[in-house]
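Run log, item B.
One chain of 246 residues. Sequence copied directly from the ordering sheet:
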Amino acid sequence: MLPVANRRRNYSLQLRKLVVLLQHIQDEYNMVTSLKTAALFDCDGVIVNTEPQYTAFWTTIGHEFLPSRANFAKEIKGNTLINVFNCYFSGNEALQAEIKARIKHFEAHMRFPYVEGVVAFIRTLQQQGIPTACVTSSNEEKMASLYAALPDFQSLFTHIFTAEDTRRSKPAPDCYIAAANYFGLAPQTCVVFEDSLSGLQAGRDSGAKVVGLSTENAPERIAPLCDVVIPDFNQFTYSSFSALLG
């Protein structure tokens, strides 16, 4: 048996280690519970990598009906279908009906691959108690096709906002302001994840921190509208997220 003095030194050392461990646990707990924020995700190009399919679809529409607009598919990224019709096909109800029918068929048969790392990242946010929202310009009919293709999609989010939930389309910041308000937060305390120029502008103008995904545009093109640019979520961690909020 160790002498009493040695046992006391061992107990004292173990106690100091325990105090340090408890302090570390308390610090982590305080960081999580004090982080009053929400993560607001666009859908296409951020959660699901569908933008190449949409680019091909709208490029065809542009070539057929607006041949003078060489970059039509790029121009409308992030816009609601209603806004596209109002801006480019206003008053032409027959053509609007034709495009609606074509996009309905297209979206019913498109693929919805997840952007790399996004599911694991969102699950980590949920484990840390961070509310998450999908804030998309897509309408409910398109989202129904996505839900059917990805049965776990809805479980990733506290709430899903669609085109029907706001009157003004991106680049207006309304959708992100509404999402922040839904959680009882100021937009300045939230983080927006976007890929399109109009979506990035909406996030920036809402006052939120903005993470730009270079899934569709080159990093240098979107950088002026972002706090951080990432190619996907493989290297973007919870620590990366919390660091944005200071």
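Observations after the first pass:
- The chain has a mean pLDDT of 90.
- The chain has eleven helices and six strands.
Flagged for discussion on Thursday.
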